[in-house]
């Protein structure tokens, strides 16, 4: 029942070791958090997971497949929202959903997905005119078009106001309730504490700790995941 298996993953950019011996597994249906400061190796690890980066060594398996060699096959089973992804400003919400639905062999009905994720009311709105929360809602809707078994969300709520963040949390909670496996990369410890079954704390390209949010709090003798995080990484930044 394993969705993801990462073993001794290593990736360097020139002399910089971005990921240095990372190992973890993610169970099917689990919401798995990846937290850490900038440069800790989070995004590189996620890019290896979805086949955008080739590891220097170690192995990555998603549903038993190599995500680089089998990227086209896995693309039909994975929904991805990456931090830096953007759309043309003049592209309308409905046009974007219809276009991206065409990338899948057996897509969900894009109109039904728009209704499900609260996009129908802004279907004719241009991407450049959307608020931050609406853009994130659109990206999440696009990630769901292929009826994914796994959804990878990289810094989904960065830059959102508190109301939009909470609305996005509700959407992620809906994914979790549906049995979808979720990998959530976040800077926000309260977000990981609220949404994730387990959390991998990244520091200097390694996993400094991996456990449930409550367990990490108990291990460190703190009162929140944010306090536990700082207790775990110390001066590792």
From TrEMBL:
<protein>
    <submittedName>
        <fullName>ABC transporter ATP-binding protein</fullName>
    </submittedName>
</protein>
<keyword id="KW-0547">Nucleotide-binding</keyword>
<dbReference type="InterPro" id="IPR017871">
    <property type="entry name" value="ABC_transporter-like_CS"/>
</dbReference>
<keyword id="KW-0813">Transport</keyword>
<feature type="domain" description="ABC transporter">
    <location>
        <begin position="4"/>
        <end position="229"/>
    </location>
</feature>
<keyword id="KW-0046">Antibiotic resistance</keyword>
<dbReference type="Pfam" id="PF00005">
    <property type="entry name" value="ABC_tran"/>
</dbReference>
<dbReference type="InterPro" id="IPR003439">
    <property type="entry name" value="ABC_transporter-like_ATP-bd"/>
</dbReference>
<dbReference type="InterPro" id="IPR050763">
    <property type="entry name" value="ABC_transporter_ATP-binding"/>
</dbReference>
<dbReference type="InterPro" id="IPR027417">
    <property type="entry name" value="P-loop_NTPase"/>
</dbReference>
<keyword id="KW-0067">ATP-binding</keyword>
<dbReference type="GO" id="GO:0005524">
    <property type="term" value="F:ATP binding"/>
</dbReference>
<dbReference type="InterPro" id="IPR003593">
    <property type="entry name" value="AAA+_ATPase"/>
</dbReference>
């Amino acid at each position: 029942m394993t969705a993801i298996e990462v073993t001794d993953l290593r990736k360097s950019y020139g002399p910089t070791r971005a990921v240095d011996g990372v190992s973890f597994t993610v169970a099917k249906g689990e919401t798995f958090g990846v937290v850490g400061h900038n440069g800790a190796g989070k995004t590189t690890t996620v890019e290896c997971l979805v086949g955008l980066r080739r590891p220097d060594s170690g192995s990555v398996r998603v549903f038993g497949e190599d995500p680089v060699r089998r990227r086209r096959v896995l693309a039909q089973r994975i929904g991805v929202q990456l931090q830096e992804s953007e759309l043309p400003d003049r592209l309308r919400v409905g046009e974007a959903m219809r276009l991206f639905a065409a990338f899948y062999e057996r897509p969900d009905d894009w109109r039904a997905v728009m209704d499900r994720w609260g996009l129908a009311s802004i279907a004719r709105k241009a991407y450049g005119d959307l608020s931050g929360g609406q853009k994130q809602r659109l990206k999440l809707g696009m990630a769901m078009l292929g009826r994914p078994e796994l959804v990878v969300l990289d810094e989904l709520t960065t830059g959102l106001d508190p109301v939009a963040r909470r609305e996005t949390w509700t959407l992620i909670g809906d994914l979790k309730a549906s049995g979808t496996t979720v990998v959530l990369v976040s800077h926000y410890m309260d977000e990981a504490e609220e949404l994730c079954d387990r959390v991998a704390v990244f520091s200097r390209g390694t996993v400094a700790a991996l456990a449930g949010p409550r367990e990490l709090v108990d291990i460190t003798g703190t009162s929140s995941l944010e306090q536990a995080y700082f207790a775990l990484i110390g001066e590792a930044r």
